[in-house]
């Protein structure tokens, strides 16, 4: 729940920022000179890109959460079996060990979204966020029956 609240607060702050920046872009365009109109258009592009990124990220998180709920209902969510350091961080060797099992599981069933979901969690635990995201995107695509790009 804490993560959802943090995400919502961050999204609200970003939307406020986009509105603020967009209003400045409109003010520059209203000035009417070639330079200010050019800068105004350039400034308006930033909130558009930001809103697009926020929307795509929100869709991704929503879909990943839906898969987690479905996998949990099936009893297929991975159990947290990772060792932790005294500070509470995941032990790197433990994460690598679990990752090896998840990777082998995924290689044995490459068309199963469940294995890709669990692999995404293993990547995340191993602190490899880009690969975690790609694995989760693959899980989502497989679940939805969409074409999956080659890895």
Sequence of secondary-structure elements = HHHHH
Q: How large, in whole angstroms, is the Cα Rg?
A: 21 Å
Amount of beta strand? under 5%
Shape: elongated
The description of the largest β-sheet is: none
The CA-CA distance between the termini, in Å, is 33 Å
Which consecutive residue ranges, at least 5 long each, have pLDDT under 50? Answer: none
List how many beta strands DSSP finds. 0
Helix count from the secondary structure assignment: 5
Mean pLDDT: 90
Structural class: mainly alpha
Secondary structure: helix percent:
over 70%
Which key terms come to mind for this protein?
single chain, mainly alpha, 151 residues, 5 helices, 0% strand, elongated
Notes on the protein architecture:
With 151 residues, the protein is mainly α. The chain is built from five helices and no strands. α3 runs antiparallel to α4. The protein is elongated, with a radius of gyration of 21 Å. The model has no long low-confidence stretch (mean pLDDT 90).
Question: Gist?
Answer:
This protein is mainly alpha-helical and 151 residues long.
Question: What is the strand and helix layout of this fold?
Answer:
Layout: H1 2-31, H2 34-74, H3 92-108, H4 113-125, H5 129-144
